[in-house]
Amino acid sequence: MNRLKNVLQQIDGKSYKGYKQIQGSYSFSSYQLKVDYVQGDPFAAPSKIRVQIPRKIKKVDAQWIETKSRQTYTEDVLARKVAEVLEKGRPNVRGSGKSGMVSIDRPKQEILERTAVSVDDDQITVCLTVGLPANGRRINGKEADKLFFTVVPNLIKDSILALKDQEIWEFVELADQHDAILTKMKEDNLISFIADDSILPRASGVSDRPMKDAIPFSSPEANRVSIDVPHREEPLTGLGLSKGIVLIVGGGYHGKSTLLNAIERGVYPHIKGDGREFVLTDPSAVKVRAEDGRRVTNVDISPFIKNLPRGADTTQFSTENASGSTSQAANVIEAVEAGARSLLIDEDTSATNFMIRDERMQELVVREKEPITPFIDKIKSLRDELDVSTVLVMGGSGDYFSEADDVIMMDQYVPYNVTNRAKEIAGKFPSKRQMTEEGFGRLPSRHFLPQSIQARKGKKEKVQAKGRTLILMGSTEIDLDGVEQLVDASQTRMIADLIMHLYKKGLLSKQQPLSQLLDQIDNQLNKEGLASFAPYKDQHPGELARPRRYEIAAALNRIRTAKVKDIR
After folding, report:
1. Helix (H, G, I), strand (E, B) or coil at 176
2. Residue 330 in contact with residue 301, Cβ under 8 Å?
3. CB within 8 A of 332, min separation 6: which ones?
4. What does the DSSP assignment read for 373-440?
5. Which of 148, 220, 412, 485 is most buried (most C-beta within 10 Å)?
6. If pLDDT is split at 50, 70 and 90, which confidence band does 568 have?
7. Lowest mean pLDDT among 100-109, 443-452, 495-504
8. Contact criterion met (CB below 8 Å) for 128 and 51
């Protein structure tokens, strides 16, 4: 502490670059302070510090971290507490640029594995971003003293050290409940579980918080399941969507897409009070949509598209500017290649000609002239041959009635099971469209070619995330706007670090199938943690949150310099 005070006094009023002298480790009365990165300018990216609190100072019950999920939820509530204290008021530290700024990678509605706070056998580590104070571009040592000796100590005292055990136990118990639900879903072959009384609508299009006065969810009797969960006297009841083909129908603005959105986000657990805390979905479920303009590289889309004009090869299809149908076909194939066991599709974000061709269009444009085999002709072979389920929102075509295993109708945000009625209608008005009898077709097993990805911009190698939907790799842009289950910018930062790690280690040149590469990434994340992919070991790991393998695969598939080969 004294050494840091002395250095700040010595560099007061000097050039801002003098702050480089404070990098290092300092012992405070209740924690260790590590200054890992010092910004070069008051207007540049802020500095990175870590606060390490021994477990003898802040008691950590061994039960809080005895399972992976319990540890993640415990770290989550600690990060939320720090963020809550910071939100109450900006630290009173003056200066130019980002002077006095203090922030943490704040969790949102989802509970994600993060690097913001970590708990191990010895200590709790809190990773903070701070703006070192300046007057113009000169060091303001007095304000820096206030930052390190008043603001940070008070933050730790009012957050980590003030957090009550009961607050942590609530998150730990929620972890146990989520684990129990997921275990039961796997045993009963459920794609998703939506608990009764859940609040599915969101406050607005730009807010992920629950809508006030929304109609609580109520499951139809035919789909109602009961799950015994720990730390709760009564079992949870709710809608259980079984594996297979599930159709969600209903009039416009009656809640079809709202239900699908809740199912889509259910691949991540949610905090209490979110309204969706007991909405859980198969973690391998992937939302698939059309993405006009995306790049596709060597994807076998022949199950859906073949015999293109001019003889273009659709078994190794590539394009710089995919259409709606070709992009959606590629997205389906890539999701299954990455290991997806459930596909989530909304007609509102789908290409019409990819989803359906009615009998009149088939009569006018004969099969020999139409290269697209619509999804309706492949949905059963996906289920029967590949064990891939589909949850589909459809309000415009009744042809899917005969294909569905379950039909749920949303009426004023209330779900009804109308499977029998849908089958009666399908029998009463049989479709005259011609169905394709062939199986699904071959799945790809692709690998990257040597030197297929370049991360250089000039003489530097650089991969950087820009918000949630964009990664800059060298001079190449990776657009993730259509990857709808990527929910946090910290996940995108993690993907950027992953790509750089794969690039530097030469793992994209080993010619191993993409599925094996994703397995390797998952194994390292599980064994060594998120920080093992960070650029600098034993330092501030950055603001990272764990993405799923499907979002990692989506980024790799969208790299515009990528060259991949299909293994036959």
Report:
1. helix
2. yes
3. 288, 304, 343, 375
4. --GGGTHHHHHHHH--EEEEE-SS-GGGGGT-SEEEEEETTEEEE-HHHHHHHHHHS---SPPP-S--
5. 148
6. low
7. 443-452
8. yes
What is the per-residue pLDDT across 151-193, written as a single tens digit (0 to 9) for each?
A: 999 999 999 999 999 999 999 999 999 999 999 999 999 999 9
Radius of gyration, alpha carbons of the chain: 26
Instruction: Look at residue 431 in the predicted model and tell me its pLDDT.
Output: 84
How far CA 388 is from CA of 286, 304, 369, 448, in Å, comes to: 11, 16, 29, 25
Where in 188-289 does DSSP place strands (E)? Answer: 190-195, 202-204, 207-210, 224-227, 236-242, 245-250, 279-281, 285-288
* Sequence-distant contacts of 432-437: CB under 8 A, at least 24 apart: 432/359, 433/357, 433/358, 433/359, 433/362, 433/399, 434/359, 434/362, 434/367, 435/377, 436/373, 436/377, 436/378
* Contacting residues for 207 by C-beta, under 8 A, at least 6 apart: none
**Token couple for 476:** 């190449």
What CA–CA distance (Å, rounded) separates 520 from 279? 29
Strand partners for 130: 47, 102
3-state helix, strand, coil in the chain (%, to 5): 35, 20, 40
Going 409 to 415 to 417 to 418, the CA torsion angle's sign is: negative
Paired tokens of 371: 């290269």
- β-bridge mates for residue 15, sequence order: 138
Q: In this model, does residue 552 exceed pLDDT 80?
A: yes
Residue 500 near residue 461, CB atoms below 8 Å: yes
Lookup result for tokens 């064994």: 527
Separation between Cα atoms, residue 410 and residue 382, nearest integer Å: 25
Separation of alpha carbons 545 and 489, rounded Å: 8
First to last CA, the chain: 63
Average pLDDT over residues 303-307: 91
